[in-house]
Structure formats: C-alpha cells, structure tokens
From TrEMBL:
Superkingdom: Eukaryota
Signal peptide: none
Xref: Pfam families: CRAL_TRIO (PF00650)
Record GO cellular component, one term: endomembrane system
Organism: Drosophila navojoa
InterPro entries the UniProt entry points to: CRAL-TRIO_dom, CRAL-TRIO_dom_sf, CRAL/TRIO_N_dom_sf, ER-organelle_contact
Sequence ranges assigned to domain CRAL-TRIO in this UniProt record: 82-238
PROSITE patterns, per database record: CRAL_TRIO
SUPFAM superfamilies: CRAL/TRIO domain (SSF52087), CRAL/TRIO N-terminal domain (SSF46938)
Identification of the protein by name: CRAL-TRIO domain-containing protein
Amino acid sequence: MPTGPQPSAEQVNEVKTRFLAKLKSEPPAVPFHPSDLARINDNDIWITKLLEAYKLDVEKTITRLWENCEWRQSYGTNDITEKSVNQEYLHDGEIYVHNQDHEGKPLLIVDFSKHSKSKNQDDLIRLIVYWVERIQRKDYLQKMTLFMDMTNAGLSNLDLDFIKGIINLFETKYPYTPNYIIVHQLPFLLNAAFKVVKTFMPAEALEILRVTTKKDITQYVNQDNCLKIWGGNDDYKFKFESA
C-alpha cells in the first residue's frame, strides 16, 4: 500500500491547537461527542491520519476534522450498534467484514450480486458505517480494504449512485481508512459502466484501486483468505455474528 509524506509534530500540533481554539471561540450548536473530543485530546493518531490523507494540508485537515465531528455527532456514529441498522440488510450478506488482505487489514466486503436498486441506499451506507466503526473500535482507527465483489453480478445489480455513495463516504468521512479498493471479477458487461465509476473517484482512491480476477487476486488476498467463489480456499458462508 503506497504511503504519502508523514506530518511533522508541528503540523499535528497546529491542527490540534487551532481546532481547540475554534471549539472555544465558536462552539457548535450541538456539542461534539465526548468520544470524538477525547480522540483529539488524548492522542495525535486521528489528526495524523487526516493530515496524511490530505497531503499535509493543514487548512483542509482542520476544516474536514470539524466537519467530521459535526457529521459524527448528527449521524450518531459513536452510538451505532447492530440494533440501530436495517436488520434485513445486516443479515442478508451484501455487506460484511471477513478475513483480511495480504497486509493483515480486514476486508470490508460488498457483494454486488446481492445488491438491488430497490434497497434503501441510506440504510446500506449506515450498515457500512456500522462495520467501519465496529472494526475501528476493536482495533483503533484500523485501515481496511474495501472489497467490491462483482462475482455473478449483472446489470440489474449495478447501482452507480450506491457506488458513488460508498466512495464519497470514504473520501469525506474516512479518508484514512481504505488500504486498497479492490474490484473483483468485474463482468465484461459492466466494463463500460465501471469506466464511469472511475471518473468520479478522487485521485487518492484511484491510486489504491485494483481490479482483480481469480488469476491475480492472491497478489492482494492470500489463498486461504480468499473465498472459494473468488478462486481461494475459504468455504465461508456469511452468517452475522455479534461483536
């Protein structure tokens, strides 16, 4: 996974100092969640990761950190649980976390063969947020690989708005999270549509995008961590398990 320039202690301190000064002089109408404020006050990991994601742009990092705290408060990310997401979607196996990539990062799998445009996109995005938060609570701000599984997907499963929603979520809310974005077994029929997808992906996402087939998937996910349907050894069938 390519890594960018590392922020200096001075840059991290500037973001933290200016953010906290703004918090004091212009407090938000709804106070930020205590867990997020603790994340900023207690260590530098979140700020460091945001600075890395935004190529050491201090101004952009401060703006996005503030926006992120606002969003996390209004969205209820710190309090999201398996009970507060769509139960049908939680159990149907379209979105789940299982196994890891070759660098040990969890695979956040979106099985597009189970997707339908009739599903509620907001509920699906909320389920992705649930899984990201669940993983990152267990392993502090852990990176993960977004695995878009196109095996057996057809035109009826393709949903550009949903894919845009996923990309936007990671670009604006979790820019430090994706290790890779893997699109696996893209059917020939969907090639043209996927070219459209690439036009709305930010440069940072394109850098970590990998389109794989059964022949080369083991460059990113080893044989034992690959499902059999991907060409690997794992015969796992999804069944939701509580954290």
